[in-house]
Structure formats: structure tokens, C-alpha cells
Known about the structure:
By secondary structure, this protein is an alpha+beta fold. It is built from 15 helices and 13 strands. It is 33% helix and 14% strand. The longest helix is centred in the N-terminal third of the chain and has 16 residues, at 10-25. The chain is globular, with a radius of gyration of 19 Å.
Amino acid sequence: MNIHIGQTRADLVAPFTQAVRNAIEAGEVGLQVAVYSGGELVVDISAGTADSVAGMPVREDTLFPTFSVIKAVTAVALHIQAARGLVDYDAPVARYWPEFAANGKAGMTVRHVLHHRSGLWQMPSDVTPERMADYAWMCDSLARMAPMFEPGTRNGYQSYTFGWLIAEVVRRTDPKQRDFPTFVRQEILDPLGIDDLWIGVPASDQGRIARLINPLPRPLPPDAPRYKAIPPHVGTIEEIFGRADVRGACIPGAGGFATARAMARFFAMLAGGGALGGVRILPAELVRDLTVPRPGSDDVDDVQGIVVRIGAGFWLSGNSQPENLGRLIGTNPNAFGHPGAGCSIGWADPDKGIAVAILHNRMVQPPATSQDPIRTAVTAAFGAD
């Protein structure tokens, strides 16, 4: 079994190496695990196969599709603008994006979007992979669309649309008028010293991306909300997210690519109350507010079909449904993070001072029980509940 041990604290090498080995024996194919504790990288392990077709093993610099884990980065970009007084959470999105007011969206607020209560969770009916990879086309289409319900009245997880809705507000309120990936690079990633976290991977780096192993088809009726939120012809499969145009596009709600080490460092900033290594990205009080549950948090989400506890752009600990976040993060009310399609995940526990990222290429429906050995190792090493 191919296992590479990067910067890992001596006392954690054996338990986490065994946990990764157990995870692969339980079904994982390619896998990276990284943990920060007290602002320091203490676990960095890569293992398995990145591309079985090309015979490529997972390396330290293998990039994995993160899918919705990238929403955490997109949300932080919006929170930066709010902290600077450039965005008011309770202002209509149309204040910053005037054409967005069309078709019943004039009262939709930024907070509605952060809370996944906007009602605009469906993708455009005429979307194609090429159009999804066209940032301007997606924003123009969403601006013209009508929400599925009156904003603020129900829960509806914005599986893909969250990214464009938030990113376009950030772009339009940026005094430097940067495109969204550049904003994220200059305002979050570069200050934190994060290299391998991408919203749109350059062609020169796409050869490092792990090949997805598609999930088995989910037995859902053809009119299921999930199929409107993520239409199968732009789904989270290798045939779509293995395309060069999709990999290189700005898809801020699902098109993230990263190493676990890079993603864990991002969450370590949140575990540190908005700062890491002497660099502050968000005010500490704002980070504390990220764990305030959205209104109606005990109501079933129209898209997920289950109760999902969500804060201001993040999934919260203690989720009772069988999703990876609730099972892996535990019950600490101050822990938060984001899962991604296929069960990649990243989270921060400020009380324990830890941040964890688990990225892989075997797409499975939650719960990903093969990751349980990693959770056990985290609990044993750091006492996370």
C-alpha cells in the first residue's frame, strides 16, 4: 500500500498511519488526511491511488476535488467584505447586484443566501458543462431566475448556486474589482501561505488532480429536488469534473481542488478564531457568530430532505442526520465546517484548537463509514467530542 508520511508529529505517525491504512482497507482508494493543532501541522498523510487508469499513486501534492468543502472558503470571502463594512448581511443582494432583483428576488438578502434560505437553489434549466464553466453566464442566468419559494421562508440547500450568489456579491463590492479567484488568492490564501487550494486549476497543474471514482446511482425519483440542484448532466462525476474546462473554471460552490494539507491550514485559521501564524483574516467575534444556527434550523431542508444545522455559510456540529459532518465532527456546539459531495470534509474545532481535512477520490453517499478510523484517531489524539 502506497503511504507517504509528510510533516507528522512523531507520536501521531503510528496511530494515523494505521487509521489511513484501515480506511483504505475499508474501501477508500486515494486519500489524504491533514490535522492542525495549536496552529501547527501535526498530521499530513497521503495514501492509495490517485488515478487507477494512469497508474498514478497519491502524492503529497495530489489535488483532490473538494466539491462543497470550497463553500467554506467562499463564505469567508463574503465575511471579509462584511467585516470591512462593504457588505451588510441584511441588505438585499440587489443592493450590490441590481439586475438580481428580477422575478421576485428584490427582497432576498445576503443572509438568506448564507443560510441557504434564498429559494434560489435550482440550476438553470438550460445549463450544460460548458455553461457551468462560464462564470458570467451562470451569474446572468441566476439573476434572471425566480426562486423556488419566498426568500427566508424555508430551507433549501444551494448545492451549486451558493457559490455564484456569494462570489458575485464579493466581486461587486471589491474596490479593486478583482475576479473571485484572485480575491480569494490575495485576501485569504496568500496571506496564510496556502499554495494548493484552487477555485479553477491552471492547465499546468491539472495533471496533479486525482481521478474520481463515481458513486453508484442514487435511487431517487426523476423529479427529486436534488436533481434540480445538481442536474445529472452537470453532476459530481469524473465525466464532468474531470473536464479541463470545468477544472479550470470559477465554480465557487463546488469547483474546489486542494490538498488536505492546504484545506486543513485554511480551517486552522478558523480554529484560531480567524487568525493563523500572526495573520488575521476575520475578527474573532465574527468567527464566533458563524456557529449561530439559521432560522428554522430544525425544519427539513427542501433539497437535502433531512434536517441540516447550518450557520452563516457553514454546517454545524451535532447534525443528527447521517451525514459525514455530524458523524466526524462530533457534538461540540462550537465546531463547524463543511462536507462535500462524495464525503470529503474539512472542519474546525476552536475549543480544541484543531482543524481537520479528509480528501479522497472515491465518491460515496454519506455516511462514509470507511473514514471512521480517522475520526477515532482524531478523538484519541485530541479529545475531540
